[in-house]
């Protein structure tokens, strides 16, 4: 599972225009990831002549720097047609948690663990997705490196809940989680993390304006992990609290 975020996890920093935090996980089967990775590289080569380009949604939306090519409407449309095909045709699942920071602060006035709470949900749903008590699969979590102190705290938190379980997933079931988090820097050019980044922002925009059209969100909406009723709300997409 490749994990990235949109928004600020710190509950004490209010932003009336964007007062949510989104943690987005992209779950690949290993062989499906290799296929996706090759398609993503081809996309980068086609438009940037360099597969080492690191996609970052904020910079892409600004159409600045290397993304100035998107100021050409025809180039931008061609790019979004190609990346849209990758969104729709590649094999993966989306599991995401949207934290309403204002409601979180009201319910948990002395708590500031939005990232950790969202990560717990992603792990719980990831285990349910690949099969509880499965002995054939291992769930690896790959996150982008942040500050060393924050990453160390997150490692400790993760180790604790996979060791002792949660309200919904037992210690035995958490044994399918790889015991260590994989932290990777932007310079390592991990395409799975870049896909998580490209999905996180549209999820945030759709959550803030559910009645407004979000074309990118529509491309991967059917990738959300669903329950037996075919509905993804509460399963692949959780609004918390």
Write the layout of secondary structure elements.
Layout: E1 2-6, E2 20-27, H1 30-48, H2 57-62, H3 73-89, E3 93-100, H4 101-107, H5 114-130, E4 142-144, H6 148-164, E5 182-184, H7 191-208, H8 215-220, E6 237-240
Helix pairs in contact: 1-3
Would you summarize the structure shown here?
By secondary structure, the chain is an alpha/beta fold. 44% of the residues lie in helices and 13% in strands.
What do you see in this structure?
The structure is a single chain. This protein is an alpha/beta fold. Helix content is 44%, strand content 13%. It has eight helices and six strands; from the N terminus they run ββαααβααβαβααβ. The chain has helices at residues 30-48, 57-62, 73-89, 101-107, 114-130, 148-164, 191-208, 215-220; strands at 2-6, 20-27, 93-100, 142-144, 182-184, 237-240. It has a six-stranded mixed sheet with strand order 5-4-1-2-3-6, sandwiched between helices. Helix 6 (148-164) links the parallel strand 4 (142-144) and strand 5. Helix 1 runs antiparallel to helix 3 (73-89). The longest helix is centred in the N-terminal third of the chain and has 19 residues, at 30-48. The model has no long low-confidence stretch (mean pLDDT 94).
Total beta strand runs: 6
Output the structural class.
Answer: alpha/beta
Number of helices: 8
Low-confidence stretches: none
> Which range does the strand content fall in?
5-15%
Strand order of the biggest β-sheet:
5-4-1-2-3-6
Largest sheet: 6 strands, mixed
Cα Rg: 18 Å
Average pLDDT across residues? Answer: 94
């Amino acid at each position: 599972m490749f994990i990235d975020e949109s928004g600020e996890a710190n509950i004490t920093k209010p932003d009336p225009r964007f007062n949510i935090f989104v943690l987005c996980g992209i779950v690949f089967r290993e062989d499906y990831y290799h296929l996706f990775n090759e398609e993503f590289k081809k996309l980068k080569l086609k438009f940037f002549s360099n597969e080492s380009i690191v996609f970052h949604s904020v910079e892409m939306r600004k159409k600045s720097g290397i993304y100035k090519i998107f100021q050409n409407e025809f180039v931008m449309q061609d790019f979004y047609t190609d990346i849209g095909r990758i969104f729709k045709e590649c094999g993966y699942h989306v599991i995401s948690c949207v934290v309403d920071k204002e409601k979180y602060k009201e319910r948990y006035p002395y708590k500031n663990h939005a990232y950790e709470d969202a990560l717990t949900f992603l792990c719980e749903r990831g285990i349910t997705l690949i099969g509880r008590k499965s002995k054939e699969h291992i769930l690896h979590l790959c996150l982008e490196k942040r500050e060393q102190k924050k990453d160390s705290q997150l490692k400790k938190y993760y180790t604790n809940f996979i060791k002792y379980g949660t309200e919904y997933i037992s210690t035995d079931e958490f044994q399918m989680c790889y015991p260590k988090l994989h932290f990777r820097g932007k310079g390592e050019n991990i395409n799975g993390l870049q896909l998580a980044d490209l999905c996180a922002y549209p999820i945030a925009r759709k959550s803030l304006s559910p009645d407004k059209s979000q074309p990118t969100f529509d491309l991967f909406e059917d990738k959300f992990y669903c329950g037996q009723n075919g509905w993804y709300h509460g399963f692949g997409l959780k609004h918390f609290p």
